[in-house]
Amino acid sequence: MRLGGVYETRGDSALGSRGIISLITSGDDATFPRNPFPSSGKHKGETPLPKRQRQAFASALKQAVAPIWKDDAVLSGELLAYVLLTIALHTGRNSTPLLEMGRDCLRAHPKDGSVFLVLWKRRGHTTNKVALRTESADERLLESTPTIRTNIERLIRRVLILSEPLRPEAPDSIKDLVWLYRVQRGPGRGGIIELTDGALKLATRKLVTDYKLVDTDGKPLRINISRLRKTFANRIFELLDGDLTTTSIALGNTPQVAERNYLAPSTEARRNWRFMGEILVQELLSRTIGATYQKTPMGQCEDPVNGQYAPKRQGIACFSFLNCLRCKHYAITGEDLHRLFSFYFRVFAERVRMGKRRWSQQYAHIPRLIDDYVIAEGLRRGAFKPEAVEAAREQARVSPHPFWSVDVLDSLEIFS
């Protein structure tokens, strides 16, 4: 219940009135303050590294890790930190599971050429598996391979080999961990310790300084495991062409958590939103709001407000683009071929993301109508020139119209 802006429960109020607990009703020390979490929502979390910064960081890491492959390599806190950062960049794992990696972290994988990296997740009280590519026979013949292409499995095994002689001297509480090294200076010189989060942060700052890593404003690049995890998530999402389910599996999260907490709008998405925003600004300045709908993302519409599939209420324009090909108000000219073929290839791209039944029921007829009805009929009547059709088809394949270069089909279904 609420009393004068202070939230409290009936039980707590009764306990306070009986003197069992001290009940302060106002001020900074109020038992139930107006806003118990004043900073909640202010911290928006880390952002993924842009492409150029990611590449610069990866290049710096590769050079910093190179000494581990020397015959006389000696493990240090800095070198181990650089190895851990490399693993984080390539796997997207959190800092605590990585720091607590056990020496049995590499397990057999049913697929040849792969192993599992098994990490323990404290919060979920469960293990998390990451599939790693193993070193091939051809790679083993190239001694320079580690400096050219990072193999995470081989990197972990190298650390295990170099740290194995340290285990007999290590305290029992840490001897089964991966990140063991001998203290080179200071009060604990000569002792065996494990890599800590504090040492990891110090080494990260040193890496940024030594390799002069900067952000777009010229300031020292901000690097931490959380940011590397988001970078990994967005890179996987980009490589998988927007496959949220597989991206969430790679992260070890549900699709909802992955989308909400890890995925940021891509450069392409921002460009598309900017494109739509520029159109809106132009219409507002010229007092022609809604005029763009006459030229729909698929062609021309004679009546976008009262057309065959329009909502027909309060002047709302029609967004039922999936029905354009069946609408009697739909028309297309040679200038519209690019956006038509962009839609054509967008539909085909959806085929691999959905079940066969859904594809057959909702989308399969669309490419067929475009090929056999719109294009074939346009060529027969002489409305389109063959060379113009092929040019538009290739342009749409390489550089689709901004409206159809993003995933919009699912959102359009609600208007169909």
Give the SSE map:
Elements: E1 2-3, E2 6-7, H1 10-17, H2 51-65, H3 77-91, H4 95-99, E3 106-108, E4 114-121, E5 126-133, H5 137-140, H6 145-148, H7 152-163, E6 180-182, E7 192-194, H8 197-210, H9 225-239, H10 244-251, H11 255-261, H12 267-285, E8 295-296, E9 299-301, E10 330-331, H13 337-349, H14 356-363, H15 365-381, H16 386-398, H17 409-412
Antiparallel strand pairs: 1-2, 3-4, 4-5, 6-7, 8-9, 9-10
Helix pairs in contact: 2-3, 3-7, 3-8, 3-9, 9-10, 10-11, 13-16
Structure overview:
The structure is a single chain. This protein has 416 residues and is mostly helical. It folds into 3 domains: 1-43, no CATH class; 51-261, Orthogonal Bundle (hpI Integrase, Chain A); 267-415, no CATH class. It is 44% helix and 9% strand. Strands 3-4-5 form a 3-stranded antiparallel β-sheet. Strands 8-9-10 form a 3-stranded antiparallel β-sheet. A two-stranded antiparallel sheet has the order 1-2. A hairpin with a 2-residue loop joins strand 1 and strand 2 (6-7). Helix 3 packs across helix 8 (197-210). Residues 1-11, 137-149, 289-293 and 407-416 have low confidence and may be disordered.
In short:
The chain is mainly alpha-helical and 416 residues long.
Number of strands: 10
- N→C terminal distance: 45 Å
- The tally of domains stands at 3
What is the CATH architecture descriptor of the largest domain?
Orthogonal Bundle
> Strand order within the widest sheet?
3-4-5
Q: Would you tell me which CATH topology of the largest domain applies?
A: hpI Integrase, Chain A
Question: What is the count of helical runs?
Answer: 17
Low-confidence stretches: 1-11, 137-149, 289-293, 407-416
The largest pleated sheet is described as:
3 strands, antiparallel
